[in-house]
Please model this.
Amino acid sequence: MKPRKTRKIKIGSLTIGGDSPVAVQSMTATRTQDLEATAKQIKILEEAGADVIRIAVDSDKDVEALKILRSNSKAVFSVDLQENYKLAPLVAPLVNKIRYNPGHLYHLEKNKTIREKVEFIVQAAKEHECAIRIGVNCGSIDPDYKERFAHDELEGMVQCAVDHCAMLDELNFVDYCVSLKDSDSQKVIEANKRFSELRPDVPLHLGVTEAGLPPEGVIKTRIAFEQLISKGIGDTIRVSLTLPDDEKGQEIDVGRDILKDIDEGRFRSVPENFLEGLNIIACPSCSRVENGKFVELAQDVRALTKYAEKYKLTIAVMGCRVNGPGETDDADLGLWCGPTHVNLKEGPKTLGSFTYDEILGQLKSEVDRLISEKFNEPVAK
Model:
């Protein structure tokens, strides 16, 4: 492997960057206010050897839950601010790292500039010695960058990250890292290569977001990690798999297995024609998921569509209303899940809202229609 050239930063007791070991992290998939379930997830991830555990907050009640969770764990905690950057000073005393998404900063207090909001987060992080992750996601790019770089979405992601790094630099804040994530392994590779050429000093958090169910999700992740880490790009990783809550530790196990293989020069070959047919994208679940049936639904979708695996179609299954609408826009068919209904889309167009009992039958009809329209083939009965 090529040596990494990034600077070292502190995340609580953990150091990443430079010649530090690549850290492996994951995120709780339960609702933060469900203290019993979230505490169980934290324990599962701790026992699996997670270097960092990320927890999402989006309200004052989430913050109160986080206080209790922190009092019962000494793990290195990262907090995801979701769409509510104003919670930064409330969570900073409780965690070791704050993750904000530049694409979510415009939601609140539209009269304030993005820089003012970033400065607000930085001030809280400085006061409590927290690190920061600038987390840029394909499905929630800052609208300004999405418009300016409509011709090249990846460049929009990269430039957004570079500009936010410049803001933190100007605010004399150095303990930060960046992530640029997509559900497409090749886009993850390209975006992180571009960024590392522009800012080789900034530590990178790698991940293929919504990689989906094993084993396909593992393969997608491995492709990106092998190509990047072997080139000296990547200081901490997260494997995002759609798994039952009790199996969340697998993300840590898979991450360590991939790192061990890369370190020992074992690069797994990708199966011939991998992803040339049906591609099912599914998010790894998080505290925003409003119905636990989401993971079961993703598994049912894969079983239902096995007959269509030779057709080049993408089906996206998303667990919430925050990222779901945007991150299904590029799929042939997208499902994003609410408390009682699943919204079905074809690209950016909404086809309807269906109960969890109805959605599979409706999805089957739409898959059959697309096979007939796109490939001019009758569907096998």
